[in-house]
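Query form — protein DUF866 domain-containing protein

QUESTION: What is the three-dimensional structure of this chain?
INPUT:
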Amino acid sequence: MTVFVLYVQADFEGIEELIFPENYTWCFDIEQSAGSLTKERITVDPNENIEMENSRGVVNFAMKWESDKRQSTITCVKLNNISRMKVTSEDEGKLVPVAAFDCRGINLTKWNPSFGYNVISNTGKKFENINLEEFEWCDFDENSNESVGIYNLKSEFRTHKV
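ANSWER: The structure tokens for DUF866 domain-containing protein are given below.
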């Protein structure tokens, strides 16, 4: 089984943690693993359970490419020390693993950040449902009377053999 692991890197200003909620709906660009077809901005909801064709298993996303007879799928999986679902101030400037996805017939090519993330500032103030569509975010922390922000958001996928 090949698992795609999403690695994320960001610069923080006054931020302790960027948190990806457990029920976060992911948005990806994908490509056919055995072909050249692509799709942009598909969504994968970890709470959605789709029954696989000709199988007893369930997945979080399923589709058929035009040229394929078999169903292609994505399943959100939890792997120890990989599915952290957060980036901390200690991780600043480093690509760190955030989430893992079991993909069959699909390669993940790009993560499209959207909204729904939570942030905790250095003073403990919580910011909820923040938007990272522009690959950055800023606000004001009344506890410290200073601006806080996330900048230079970058990501990449790496494969992980299980």
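ADDITIONAL NOTE: The chain has a mean pLDDT of 95.
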